[in-house]
């Protein structure tokens, strides 16, 4: 373990300082939610002005220095990273223990698959396991998995869950959210929060950061990007669609963190928006911290042109209890300038310190550790047999059998299967986005593909394979090869769909159609005349009108994650007992749910292919 982990010594210094402040009682009764105002004032009065911006900055704040900057070594205040992603598993490095055993965080199905499960207990269990693993990996010194973040030591507050509404199938981040229903997303946010923050009476296990507030679901469409998009939203849509999930996660889940988004709402960038104060803190009694999305404070001046400079942007964000933490470089470089120029007050800065340091108390970071169970979570608690079994169960529950004509499924054990398509040997494409390190060698080799899982059930001789096409490019020779493989088999299984090159953060789709090459492949295989099954990998829905008519069976697999291959193979072979173009008519930047044919299943006025909850 790294030498930076000599916290008790540092914390002792902090206590010693605090003990001489008025209001200090005893070191082990800093109870949750109730850090006495006197103590907090004492602590804040110990911090020099120039030490404040680093405490209010996530990751390395664009400074290029390794590690998070939240330390004030002079008074024993240790570093703390305010930004760690955990959308469907801790997004950290693996860690080797003293025996040489490597522990990698459990990687669950993408949240869209959790929507498919309809299992609200699974949402709680997902949060709980991520919370336990966050503690264990943090204690062991794991660092963030993404290189662009500077790979700081992870913190205990996670930038998850994502509970935005899947407003449009074109949105690039549909895989990150359970779905289009405000109630379901609220249940997801609430249960994930209760699981992750833990059920200790005194301390928080870890902290959620509900994202992205507010009315966020456009990456790059209609000439706008998420960094300059001004969402015009009626009060009706805010209250009926965009807010309910956040409200439930805050008021019932007791979420301790919220992230403000890149876009503006009705002319005001969300991180500078008074709604953070009036709705979140005053109306819903939110008592946690607000972090900006990475670079969102920069956007206030640089892209929205809402203020003329970084100093004014910093102040617009931090003023009046709005945005406490900047994931970016603006607070670090320009917050104190903003204060000295009179755009906001030092009291605003201290208020943000209060909101954030309070959480570090509630996490038990300043109390004696010996009686805190969350300080004694061993690495062996990471990726346990039990969490793997839970992961497998949730993955199986997330498979959706959309269609099964002529009982083509399940495949009998003596079936000769032609496994065809760009996702037949998917590994990386199956696990989606926001990934921690999955395999000890930092690749995707340990992810079992649908092909390998099917072979292990039916045997090598029973499964023949041809790629047929890539996701978007194809050649006649590969399609011909796939046709001959299908001709020689009893059943064709087509593994189709899309990937991160087509739907991703910063990248909305322009069409919901299955890529043309895959239509061509499917048509060629249907023409062979064998029973044909389609398995789809995707986050946002795909238009497959022709395939729906011609295929015997269709399985929707989402981005099923680490155990996706096994879950797909078990679903095909009947071992899964846990089953459960409108797009051109409205433009992407129109936030009204009732426009045109209507958004999401709640407002859609036409006939549906498959009803919501199918
Ligand atoms: C934080 O720690 C680093 C490395 O120990 C040190 O160089 C730096 O001065 C510390 N920052 C503060 C504000 O104490
Ligand atoms: C739902 O998830 C929970 C928690 O993982 C699990 O115990 C349960 O078996 C799952 N399935 C159903 C149908 O509840
Ligand atoms: C929305 O509600 C707020 C708060 O009640 C009000 O100030 C604002 O005028 C309303 N906006 C519209 C367009 O009605
Ligand atoms: C920890 O618990 C033990 C047993 O209840 C108690 O004797 C000890 O004082 C506690 N330590 C602290 C620092 O509270
Ligand atoms: C986990 O499962 C493996 C194989 O199923 C078994 O060998 C091992 O003993 C189990 N570990 C624990 C801690 O139960
Ligand atoms: C996929 O693309 C690569 C690179 O262009 C090409 O070499 C390969 O033949 C393609 N495979 C199929 C199945 O079309
Ligand atoms: C799309 O919708 C927005 C918001 O209602 C509107 O301002 C814009 O003019 C629309 N664009 C087109 C091409 O209809
Ligand atoms: C409804 O669906 C029909 C065909 O199913 C289509 O012709 C029509 O344009 C659609 N209209 C609207 C408003 O959704």
Can you tag this structure with a few keywords?
alpha/beta; binds 2-acetamido-2-deoxy-beta-D-glucopyranose; globular; Rossmann fold; xylan 1,4-beta-xylosidase activity; TIM Barrel; hydrolase; disordered N terminus; Glyco_hydro_3_C; 614 residues
Description:
By secondary structure, the protein is α/β, with parallel strands linked by helices. It has two domains: 82-369, Glycoside hydrolase, family 3, N-terminal domain (TIM Barrel), CATH 3.20.20; 399-583, Rossmann fold, CATH 3.40.50. Helix content is 34%, strand content 10%. It has 21 helices and 18 strands. It has helices spanning 7-19, 37-46, 52-55, 111-117, 120-139, 182-197, 235-242, 244-251, 275-283, 296-302, 310-318, 330-340, 346-362, 385-397, 428-431, 450-458, 476-487, 516-526, 545-550, 564-572, 600-603; strands spanning 84-85, 95-96, 102-103, 158-159, 210-213, 220-221, 224-225, 230-231, 257-260, 264-265, 268-269, 289-292, 400-404, 417-420, 463-466, 491-497, 532-537, 553-556. The strands form six sheets. It has a six-stranded mixed β-sheet, with helices on both faces. The protein has a three-stranded parallel β-sheet with strand order 5-9-12. α10 (296-302) packs across α11 and α11 packs across α12 (330-340). The longest helix is centred in the first third of the chain and has 20 residues, at 120-139. The chain starts with 6 loop residues before the first helix and ends in an 11-residue tail after the last helix. Bound molecules: 2-acetamido-2-deoxy-beta-D-glucopyranose (8 copies). One 2-acetamido-2-deoxy-beta-D-glucopyranose is lined by residues 51, 54, 71-74. Residues 1-25 form the signal peptide. Residues 399-577 form the Glycoside hydrolase family 3 C-terminal domain. Keywords: Glycosidase, Hydrolase, Signal. This is Fibronectin type III-like domain-containing protein. Residues 155-358 form the Glycoside hydrolase family 3 N-terminal domain.
């Amino acid at each position: 373990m790294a030498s930076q982990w000599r916290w008790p010594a540092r914390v002792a210094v902090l206590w010693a300082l605090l003990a001489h402040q008025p209001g200090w009682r005893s070191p082990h009764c800093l109870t949750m939610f109730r850090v006495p105002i006197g103590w907090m004032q004492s602590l804040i009065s110990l911090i020099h002005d120039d030490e404040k911006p680093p405490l209010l900055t996530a990751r390395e704040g664009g400074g290029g220095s390794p590690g998070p900057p939240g330390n004030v070594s002079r008074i024993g205040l240790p570093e703390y990273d305010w930004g760690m992603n955990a959308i469907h598993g801790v997004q950290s490095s693996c860690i080797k223990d003293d025996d040489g055993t490597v522990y990698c965080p459990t990687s669950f199905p993408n949240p869209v698959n959790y929507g498919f499960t309809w299992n609200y207990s699974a949402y709680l269990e997902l949060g709980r396991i991520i919370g336990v693993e966050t503690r264990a990996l943090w204690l062991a010194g794991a660092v963030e998995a993404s290189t662009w973040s500077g790979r700081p030591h992870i913190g205990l507050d996670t930038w998850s869950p994502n509970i935005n509404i899947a407003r449009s199938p074109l949105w690039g981040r549909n895989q990150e959210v359970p779905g289009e229903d405000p109630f379901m997303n609220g249940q997801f946010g609430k249960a994930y929060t209760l699981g992750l923050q833990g059920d200790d009476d005194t301390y928080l296990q870890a902290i959620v950061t509900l994202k992205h507030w507010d009315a966020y679901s456009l990456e790059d469409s209609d000439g706008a990007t998420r960094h300059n998009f001004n969402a015009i939203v009626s009060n009706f849509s805010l209250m009926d669609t965009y807010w309910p999930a956040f409200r439930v996660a805050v008021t019932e889940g007791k979420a301790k963190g919220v992230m403000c988004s890149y876009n503006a709402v009705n002319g005001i960038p969300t991180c500078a928006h008074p709604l953070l104060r009036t709705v979140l803190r005053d109306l819903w009694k939110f008592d946690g911290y607000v972090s900006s999305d990475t670079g969102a404070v920069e956007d206030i001046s640089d892209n929205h042109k809402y203020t003329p400079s970084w100093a004014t942007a910093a102040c617009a964000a931090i003023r009046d209890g709005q945005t406490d933490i900047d994931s970016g470089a603006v607070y670090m470089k320009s917050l104190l300038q903003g204060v000295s120029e009179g755009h906001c007050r030092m009291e605003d800065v201290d208020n943000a310190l209060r909101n954030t340091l309070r959480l570090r108390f509630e996490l038990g970071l300043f109390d004696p550790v010996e009686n805190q169970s969350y300080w004694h979570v061993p690495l062996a608690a990471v990726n346990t047999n039990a969490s793997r079994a839970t992961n497998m169960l949730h993955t199986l529950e997330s498979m959706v059998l959309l269609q099964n004509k002529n009982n083509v499924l399940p495949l009998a054990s003596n079936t000769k299967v032609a496994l065809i398509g760009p996702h037949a040997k998917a590994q990386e494409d199956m696990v989606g986005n926001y990934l921690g390190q999955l395999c000890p060698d930092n690749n995707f080799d340990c992810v079992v593909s649908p092909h390998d899982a099917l072979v292990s059930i039916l045997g090598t001789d029973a499964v023949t394979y041809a790629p047929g096409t890539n996701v978007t490019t194809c050649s006649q020779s590969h399609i011909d090869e796939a046709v001959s493989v299908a001709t020689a088999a009893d059943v064709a299984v087509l593994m189709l769909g899309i990937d991160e090159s087509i739907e991703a953060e910063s990248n909305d789709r322009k069409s919901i159609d299955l890529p043309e090459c895959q239509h061509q492949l499917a048509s060629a295989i249907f023409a062979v005349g064998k029973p044909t099954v389609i398995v789809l990998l995707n986050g946002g829905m795909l238009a497959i009108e022709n395939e729906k008519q011609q295929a015997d069976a269709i399985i929707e697999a989402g981005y099923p994650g680490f155990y996706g291959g096994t879950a797909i193979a078990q679903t095909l072979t009947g071992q899964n007992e846990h089953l459960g173009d409108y797009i051109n008519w409205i433009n992407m930047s129109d936030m009204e749910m009732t426009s045109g044919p209507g958004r999401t299943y709640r407002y859609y006025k036409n006939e549906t292919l498959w009803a919501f909850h199918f």
